[in-house]
Amino acid sequence: MAPDTVRALKCRECGREYPIAPVHVCEFCFGPLEVHYDYDAVARRTSREKIACGPRSIWRYGDFLPVAGRGADFQVGLTPLVRADRLARELGLRELYIKNDSVNPTFSFKDRVVAVALAKAAEFGFDTVACVSTGNLACATAAQAARAGLRCHVLVPAGLEKGKINNMAVYGPQLVLVKGSYDDVNRLGSEIADRYQWAFVNINIRPFYAEGSKTLGFETVEQLGWRAPDHVVVPVASGSLLTKIYRGITEMQKVGLIDATPVRVSGAQAAGCAPVANAFAAGTCDVRPVKPETIAKSLAIGNPADGYYALKTVRETGGHVERADDGEILAGIRLLAATEGIFTEPAGGVTVAVLKKLAAAGKIRPDETTVAYITGNGLKAQEAVEEILAPACTIEPNLASWAKVFERRAC
Amino acid sequence: MSVVAVRIPAPLRRLCGGAAVVDCHGGDIAAVIAALEERYPGLQERLCEETGALRRFVNVYVNGEDVRFLAGLATPLREGDEVSIVPAIAGG
Fold first, then answer.
1. Of B83, B15, B18, B22, whose CA–CA distance to B54 is shortest?
2. Which residue from B9, B86, B90 is facing A306, i.e. has the nearest CB?
3. Cα–Cα distance for residue pair A186/A183, rounded to 1 Å
4. What average pLDDT is seen over chain A?
5. ipTM greater than 0.85, yes or no?
6. Which residues 20-49 in chain B show a CB within 8 A of chain A?
7. Which of A69, A117, B40, B47 is the most exposed place for a label (fewest CB within 10 A)?
């Protein structure tokens, strides 16, 4: 059961079409399958007014999603697009916005993809969902599975931040820590997925799951007052988010909701896990896998499934891919917190650090309307910043003690 | 010549008579793919470009290690090695 705006699944490489089903790989060339829409039908159904009157969640963009009904009401999406003038001044930009997606129900953008994946899994009739995750996806899957009354299995690398482990465990999934990197977990997950009749959100449900990220693009357009930004800066792990934000913006152009103005798409990677940035710098299409070594664990995917497409999107739109090392990532976290009052996880530090680099190099022009995507919350990865924060001073509860500290500080 | 176990991913099982694991002879990955092709005609073109290189979205592992960190198609195989063919999957 799919909405009549959906035509089929289509292989992104060879174009072969498949009926709507929980499959994600083309049997002929192994290319990824994507949802293929009838955009004339979407255009007939959608309008700015209809969207504006819709639910205050991603489901206001339901005409652009591959789900017949509306998913569980979990207040996913419609997160703040914050005008970031203080950060902009710091970076020499004129019109900068932060899309603060760290305030979703489980504090990352993954709530979007999971909402669509679980709605679709329910349509397919699955009673068990699963995922392999660098952390945020597991939190989102476990929480939404709990709310939907579905059984849930999550596999994550054993070296994750404690905050994330606690966060996902509290929802009561079957949680398995795997000794190895995310790429190891990914491979194992794929082999497990072949053995069970489960809805693995980012494996067999992936074509539908990935569509959820488009809603970040839709919201950006609506929140900017129905126009596309000139430049977006997006963190890159698997590369799917970057390609889908761009897809979301261009779909709204395609169906005539907004003018077709050009959008430049830039990517941000941690220096310790930069397969896409490396390929960009080398001028090649060959995204070579790496062994991740970075504090940005949610971006630590050494073998990015959509890296090739992210690279292609960046090149075709005239964007850039930059890297940030651990020191720059921490500085990025502090800069965002100190200028805009937003505490992000290291992935957001990567985005801010790369935003700063691109602005300093003139690769983002000061006159471009620029949106940077902050996709995860700092409270989940507090270990990352502990070392760089000055210890707070402790005093006795009297004025003399206060004055002593105050005078010593001599501010 | 070494005998290795090749894990077949779901999208390819139809070509392999439904088998999830196939025992195969071959001294390296290229030889194993050639052996698979002989047994299950059509399998090679699913995995490899016309140039012979592995397709972009095909990941091949030997005992859990991506062959791109080893010697690619020339990665040598020993008796009892486990070869996994895994499609690329999305992030998390």
1. B83
2. B90
3. 5
4. 95
5. yes
6. 20, 46-47
7. A69
Residues of B in contact with A289 (CB under 8 A): 66, 68-69
Closest to A198 measured CA to CA, from A118, A115, A128: A128
Residue A362: is it exposed, middle or buried by C-beta count within 10 angstroms (0-12/13-18/19+)?
Answer: exposed
- Cα A308 to chain center, whole Å? 17
Q: Which of A32, A195, A238 sits opposite B91 (nearest CB)?
A: A238
Give this prediction's pTM: 0.95
Q: Say if the Cβ atoms of A194 and B91 lie within 8 Å.
A: no
A406 near B CB under 8 A: no
Chain A residues within an 8 Å CB radius of B11: 23, 25-27, 30
**Total structural domains in chain A?**
1
Could you list the residue range(s) of the whole structural domain that residue A241 is in? 81-107+212-386
Per domain, the residue ranges of chain B are 3-87
Query: Which residues of chain B have a CB within 8 Å of the CB of A180?
Result: 64
- With beta carbons less than 8 A apart as the criterion, state whether B3 and B83 touch: no
Element (DSSP H or E) covering residue B25: strand B21-25
Could you please state the CATH topology (level 3) that the domain comprising B3-87 is classified under: Ubiquitin-like (UB roll) (3.10.20)
pLDDT tens for residues A378-399? Answer: 999 998 998 888 888 899 999 9
DSSP A55-124: -SSGGGGGGGSS-SS-----------EEE-HHHHHHHT-SEEEEEEGGGSTTSBTHHHHHHHHHHHHHHH
Task: For residue A367, give the amino acid letter.
Answer: D
pLDDT tens track for A290-339? 999 999 999 999 999 999 999 999 999 999 999 999 999 999 999 999 99
A17 touches chain B (CB under 8 A): no
What order of strands is seen across the sheet that includes strand A33-37? A17-18, A6-11, A33-37
**Chain A closest CA to B45's CA: distance in Å?**
8
Sign of CA dihedral A278, A281, A282, A287: positive
Question: Chain A contacts of B54, Cβ < 8 Å?
Answer: none
First-last CA distance in chain A? 66
Rounded to an integer, what distance in angstroms lies between the CA atom of residue A64 and that of residue A37? 8
B50 in A contact zone (CB under 8 Å): no
Residue A157: closest CA among A306, A301, A350, A330: A301
